[in-house]
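Support request, please re-run this one:
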Amino acid sequence: MNAYASVQASDIVPTLRQRQWAQKTRDVVLCRRVIDETHDVKTFVLTSAADRLFCFSAGQYVLVHLRINGAAITRSYSVSSPPTRPLDLQITVKRTPGGLASNWLHDNVRPGSEIEIEGPLGSFNLDELPAQKPVFLSGGSGVTPVMSMLRALTDRADDREIRFIHSARTPGDIVFRSELEALAARFPNVQVTLVCSQGGPTWTGSTGRIGGRMLLSLVPDLHKRTVFACGPEGYMKTARTCLDAIGFPPAQYHEESFGGSNGSRSEMGSAVPSSVRFARSGVEYQCTPGETLLEAARNCGIYIPTACQQGVCGTCRIAKLSGEVVMDDLGGLNAEEKSAGYVLACCSRPQGTVLLDV
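Re-run finished. Output below.
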């Protein structure tokens, strides 16, 4: 008898399923390689210490759990690699001046280092938001989730017409530049446009900032397409404004934001005298003007888990039992969670007395 005859497909499938990285898995990963993308951006190539296959949707993110100077720190990072390459998972991190986690990763993680991640998370992805004619808009380090989408589509030799428009400060700040140019040269259905706000004497590409006229010149059939946008809040505000100005349908626009707000959000609701009651803890706290639920909890010693602190990741989701809040989330809750009374502590400000299930 053939020695291989006893191996059945039914025996292999459960083994593969056991190795898959399921949704919201918390796992120890090994850094296999560190890639210098630009002068202040690195990609960390990670593999599972438990020999798992990474299973996620292009565009999703992970939570990275770190211990820095004895303190537990959690941050969210989009996956830049595609799900079509399940043996490793890559996160691409920009060093932020004064940034605790980004600086620690850049300075300490080397091949062989172990870190803990949790995921995958996020509804900004191609599986939940399918598009026949996608336009990817990105600014700075916001390129990471849409790069995962582009890599996934080109890995599958997808023939849909793809338009990829990335903005950076200078040519030296363009993350994945050589790969983007190579993909555009290899796949005739992929059109890549790189835009620099400060081009320099040797730059021959587009310069300036994105605007409605620029987008229509690059993508004449823009109104028939689906836009996926990601970048710092300033970039995102510009993208929303110029698309609105040209009458782009809101239902065809999806975004993921990186970076904090411009400060106007913290002023919302600040004139209303407010307090927070923590039902299970039996604590009541008088809020200062503009204070968030997360800040209130910290100020009276109550722990609420958090990661991005921008209303994106949903880690600080909490049940509101009564009262009203002003919430400036960036997609961290879905419609069902909002209907069920959940709010995000990091970006919710009480209006009067609010009772939380904590």
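The CA atoms of residues 82 and 337 lie 28 Å apart. The helical segments are 9-19, 100-108, 143-155, 177-186, 212-218, 233-245, 293-299, 335-339.
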